[in-house]
Specification:
Layout lengths: L1 E4 H22 L3 H23 L2 E4 L3 E5 L11 E2 L6 H10 L3 H8 L5 H25 L6 E2 H31 L3 H8 L1
Parallel strand pairs: 4-5
Antiparallel strand pairs: 1-3, 2-3
């Protein structure tokens, strides 16, 4: 069992997966380096996501507790569609895959906005369905709701929209600054 302060968990999550990517997107000019960093951060995010998805996570005002309990049976859960909707579940699922939006925007940076956003929505739905499928198959104490997959898709879409806006700001920042080589040539 792992227990962490709820405040610390929220601060670390927001910093690592929202603030840091935005700062990196606005500070790193080399797109290849930015793509590599985004891929590494996505791998770390997916690792943390797997821990949280396949464990029992309890969130209270003071403590976030992650516990691995195998007290279920393989493929023995009921699949709910939209029957068990709680505010916490909706909020968590709307925020859970937000960082994947950055990954999809960086991967499809040469594509048109419509394609980037459509791709992120479909990929978010696929990831959400993948998570729910594994929660159904594995003997973990988790409920299976298809509404979670829908909210996960919306989460990736919102994340992609946010990071696309940051990417547009990034383009303007780096266009306005002349290259050092060009400014040196103009002086000669």
């Amino acid at each position: 069992m792992i227990s962490v302060s709820t405040t610390l968990a929220i601060i670390l999550t927001v910093f690592c997966f929202i603030v840091l990517p935005v700062v990196l997107m606005l500070c790193i000019k080399n797109v290849k380096v930015l793509t590599i960093i985004t891929c590494v951060m996505t791998i770390i995010f997916v690792g943390g996501l797997c821990v949280c998805v396949f464990a029992t996570v309890s969130i209270s005002k003071d403590v976030v507790t992650i516990q691995f309990v195998n007290n279920g049976r393989w493929c023995a859960k009921t699949i709910n569609f939209f029957s068990i909707l709680q505010k916490n579940d909706i909020l968590i699922n709307l925020c859970m895959l937000f960082p994947l939006g950055a990954f999809f925007v960086v991967l499809a940076q040469q594509s048109k906005l419509k394609f980037q956003l459509l791709w992120s929505l479909l990929a978010g739905l696929a990831v959400g369905l993948f998570i729910e499928t594994w929660q159904f198959i594995l003997p973990v104490n988790r409920s299976v709701q298809l509404s979670d997959a829908v909210f996960n898709a919306i989460s990736v879409f919102i994340g992609a929209t946010w990071y696309w806006l940051i990417w547009q700001i990034r383009k303007k920042i780096f266009k306005e600054q002349p290259n050092e080589d060009q400014s040196n040539e103009e002086q000669i």
